[in-house]
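Before the break, one more example. Copy the sequence into your notebook; we will annotate it together after we see the structure.
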Amino acid sequence: MKEINGGVTAAAGFKAASTAAGIKYKNRKDMALIYSEKPCRAAGTYTTNLVKAAPVKWDKEMVDHAPFIQAIVVNAGIANACTGKEGDTYCEETAKAAAECLSIPSDSVLVASTGVIGMQLPMDRIKAGIEAMIPVLDESLESGTDAATAIMTTDTVKKEVAVQFTAGGKTITVGGMCKGSGMIHPNMCTMLSFITTDLAISKELLQEALSEDVRDTYNMISVDGDTSTNDTVLLLANGLAENPEITEKNEDYQSFLEALHYVNEYLAKKMAGDGEGCTALFEVKIIGAETKEQAVTLSKSVITSSLTKAAIFGHDANWGRILCAMGYSGAQFDPEQVDLYFESAAGKLKIIENGVALPYSEEEATKILSEPEVTATADIKMGEATATAWGCDLTFDYVKINADYRS
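Here is what the structure looks like once it is written out:
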C-alpha cells in the first residue's frame, strides 16, 4: 500500500464538482457533488445522537434499501437538522433535482448537510447549485480538492487523502475527503466523511469493513465533547478496478481493510488536529491494558478532559490531570502501576513511574509539549491490549468561534 496525491476523485470513475451557491457563506464555495460513472455499492455509519438531521435519515434509508448509489450532494452552512417534515422533503427534492440532471434514479442520490441547526435550506439556491455543478463534474485532482474545500465550515484546512494497493492482480485506489472542526466527540462527531474506491466487493463486506474501522478511527476523536446531529460517513465502491469481486474475508479483503483504515485514521487525525481554535493535535495511547475496551475507555477519558486539554495549550506537563481523567473514566486499573510519557518531534520524556513523578526537566517537558503534535502514552501494565485516541488543546479561540457561530 502507498499513499498517493488525491482525494475522492482518485479512484477510477469518480468525479467531483463544487460551486458557490450562497447558502450561508458569501464569496466562497459551499456546495459539492460526488458522482460515479458506474452505480456503486454503498455503506454508511451515522451519528449516535437521538436528534438526527434529515440527511442522516435519508442516507440511511437509501444506503440500506436502494439498489445502488451513484451520487452525493453536500452543502455547507445549514445543517437541515431539527427542521421537521419540511427538512425531510428538502432531502427528497435535492435528490430528485440531482437525479434529473444526471439521468439517474433519485434513490441513488445521497445528501449531506453541515452547519447551523434549525434553519431551513434555501431550496432555490440548492437546486441552482446542483445545476451549476453538473457541467463541471471532473475527475481531476483539482476538482476533488475544490470539493473538499467547499464542504468546510469552521475548518481551517481541507482534508483529503488517497492510497493504492493490489488485489486480484489489479491496482485498487481508495480516496476520501472529510470536514470537521467543532462539535466533535467520540462515537461520531460533527463530521462528514466521503470515501470512494474502485474495488469490486460485496455490499455486506463493504458495510462490515466500514462499521468495524469506524470504531478505531472516527469514534476515537474528540474536540469538545459535543456529539452532532449530522455525523455521516459514506463509502462508495464502483468496481471499476475489475478485480475478482471480494465476497469472503480473504487476503484481498485484509488488504482493503488496511487501506481503508489508513484513509479513515488520516482523516480522523486531521479533524482532531484542526479542532476549533486549537494549536496542537493531542494523541493519547494506552498500552499494557487488560482488554481493548479498558484501553478505549481510558484513552477517551483523557482526550475529553478540559483540564488536560487546557494544560496542553499551556505546554504544561501537568500529568496529574491525565491520571485524574483516567481515574474517573470508570475503567479499573492500579494508579500505582502507571508509567507516563510525553512525546513529540522534540523528544520523549518519562514523566511518572509507578504512579510517582520522576525528577524530569520542566524545560524539556515544555519544549516537547510546544510541538504541533503531542503524544501522551500511559502504560498500565495489566496486559497486551492497546488503544489510541485523538483530540486537541482547548484555547481562548474555541470560545470566540462558538460564541457567535450563528451570526
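The first strand starts at residue 2 and ends at 4. The first helix runs from residue 54 to 65. Try to locate both features in your own notes.
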